[in-house]
Structure formats: C-alpha cells, structure tokens
Design brief:
The chain is mostly helical. It is built from 10 helices and no strands.
C-alpha cells in the first residue's frame, strides 16, 4: 500500500530495492547467504556479538538451517509478490475510494471493505504460485546446505535429484509422480480460488 501511494517520496528507489533480489541470479544470492550466515566469520553473527548475543550455527544446526533457507526464499521472492500486488492495487479505480471517502469511510474501513476484496484475485494467485514454488524448491538447499544438516533442509526437488543421482530411478520416478500430482492438485485449487464469487 505504501509503494502504491502516489505521495511517497523516493518511491522508485524503494521499488527497485525490493525488486532487485527477484532479478538477481539465485546462485549469487545463495553465495552471499553462505557468507553472511557463516558461524565464525558471518556478518549476522558479528552483529549479534555487537549487542552481546552469542553466535548461532545458522547453516549447521537442524534447528536454524530451515528458517535460514526460508528467509532466503522470502527475500528472493518478495519482489515478485510486490509486482503482483502493485498490479492489483493499481487496477483499483480511484473513484471507488473517492466515493467511500464521501460516504465517511475511514482509511482502515476502506482497506478492509474495498482494497482487500478488490485485490482478492491477486492475493489468491500469489499464494498459490508461492506455495507451488515452495514445493518445487531445489536451488536454495542445493547450493546453501546440500540438504543438510542431517537431511533437515531436503526438499522434494532435492530428494528427487539425490535419488536420480544415486541411480535409484524407481524411487525417483515415484517421487516425481507424487510431485506432479501435488502440483496438479494445487493448480486446481488455484483455479477455484481465482474464480469470482459471482460465478
């Protein structure tokens, strides 16, 4: 909503800052992630030490490796989410808000009663696409953790890759078939969510 506000100063700079990770190659970002979250020399632990907090084994601990990868995925895909939501917000006619303001609706009321219903399709599309991306995630754990520690960051795509690499084609084929079924089911769900309430 802030990025869609016409009165926001430096709006272009903020948009570029959010969208830049989305267009940056994932392997390059993953290398930055490895360096930043290194246990001994990483920037994140250095900042923790400055405020008196102990070092954290971000990528070597089963408790922290998965949240660290999730943060990388979130940072990488935030730009895509902003593009979709900005397109949805800019498609809302301005006279709708003007009419609501004349009727005495507050900004909060306009958001809940106008903005959210009018961008419902964009939100549903984004949720489904991001869910599909999570289930098909491969490059992030492959580059950053190789599925470790102790398999805690092994995703469906990486699991499939490991079995094919080990010439276990039967398990790999079964896993890929289940992945296709899952993606198909989520695609049907997306069609259902993207339908208009009037249909």
């Amino acid at each position: 909503m802030l990025l869609a506000n016409a009165r926001l100063r430096l709006k272009g700079m903020f948009r570029v800052a959010f969208i830049a990770p989305f267009v940056t190659p994932l392997v390059a970002m993953a290398q930055v992630w490895i360096v930043a979250f290194d246990t001994d020399y990483g920037l994140v632990n250095h900042l923790f030490n400055l405020v008196g907090l102990p070092d954290v084994d971000w990528l070597q601990s089963t408790a922290w490796a998965k949240p660290t990868l999730a943060l990388l995925f979130l940072w990488k895909t935030t730009g895509f989410a902003i593009i979709i939501l900005l397109a949805g917000l800019q498609a809302v006619p301005a006279d709708v808000y003007e009419a609501a303001a004349l009727d005495g609706a507050s900004r909060k009321r306009q958001f809940w009663s106008l903005t959210l219903p009018l961008v419902r399709r964009s939100i549903a599309f984004l949720v489904v696409v991001q869910t599909l991306a999570v289930f098909q995630m491969f490059a992030e754990p492959f580059v950053v953790t190789q599925g470790g520690p102790y398999g805690s960051t092994t995703t469906g795509g990486l699991y499939l890759y490991n079995h094919i690499l080990a010439s276990d084609l039967g398990t790999g084929a079964a896993n890929s078939f289940l992945l296709v079924l899952l993606v198909f089911a989520l695609s049907l769900l997306s069609v259902r969510l993207l339908r208009s309430r009037d249909e």
